């Protein structure tokens, strides 16, 4: 623990590790933030934590600075939470303008990590810092939202979100008009402009599967309304080539190294 008035016999953990390993203070801090350092058998990720001379400080034999690579988190956002507030509208399924909604990023912590995550990445506190989101969803929608520390992925999503195909499951009610499915695929207009061909199919009696690019705020509800249907819920299940997969609502997983948007 850090202290405004520390005991002079207590020293910063980073200094202790640097002395033990005969390495620089910055390298010691990276090992600590990488989750490789324990104090009395408990992992400590704060370089500024203060330790007593009698406390046992150990560095894992497999300590590596490779663990400090930036990560990308894939969250299954529930309805009622805001994601990507501040990102320009129109860059994803439906950028909400609602104010005061709880932020979905608050779900990103160790307790909500998918237990079956196949990435093999160890969950560290540093993975929840400096995250950016370029894939917003409104409070009334659910599904895949991407948070990343990786500048390359952030740039990819910011620049290419208009051309990345997004797949959504849309729950509807009402009776679809004659030839309504064909019109959803091609033949409708939105905001006075004809829409390009879109892939739409029935998943079951109440759910439609949309796969489309360059989607605009309010576009899916307007399309459904045009063919006699009302939207009950929207769930995004894929962005580009990256699926939400079997992540339960409210949980998240790591983007695996081989997964590309």
**How many separate helices?**
5
The termini sit apart by 40 Å
Would you tell me which CATH topology of the largest domain applies? Pseudouridine synthase
Fraction of residues in β-strands: 15-25%
What profile does the largest beta sheet have?
A: 8 strands, mixed
Instruction: Report the helical percentage.
Output: 10-25%
Class by helix and strand content?
Answer: alpha+beta
Q: What is the CATH C level class of the largest domain, in words?
A: Alpha Beta
Count all strands and give the number. Answer: 15
What's the CATH architecture of the largest domain? Answer: 2-Layer Sandwich
**Number of domain units:** 2
| Global geometry | elongated
Write the CATH homologous superfamily of the largest domain: Pseudouridine synthase
Mean pLDDT level: 86
Instruction: Output the helix-strand order.
Output: EHHEEEEEEHEHEEEEHEEE
Can you describe what's shown?
The chain has 261 residues and is an alpha+beta fold. The chain has two domains: 11-67, Structural Genomics Hypothetical 15.5 Kd Protein In mrcA-pckA Intergenic Region, Chain A; 72-254, 2-Layer Sandwich (Pseudouridine synthase), CATH 3.30.2350.10. Helices cover 16% and strands 25% of the residues. The chain has helices at residues 13-21, 25-33, 151-160, 180-185, 219-226; strands at residues 11-12, 37-39, 42-43, 50-51, 57-59, 72-77, 142-148, 166-174, 189-190, 193-194, 199-202, 207-212, 229-239, 242-243, 252-254. The strands form four sheets. Strands 6, 7, 8, 11, 12, 13, 14 and 15 form an eight-stranded mixed sheet that branches. A hairpin with a 2-residue loop joins strand 2 and strand 3 (42-43). Helix 1 packs across helix 2 (25-33). The longest helix is centred in the middle third of the chain and has 10 residues, at 151-160. The protein is elongated and about 80 Å long. Mean pLDDT is 86; it is low at 85-98.
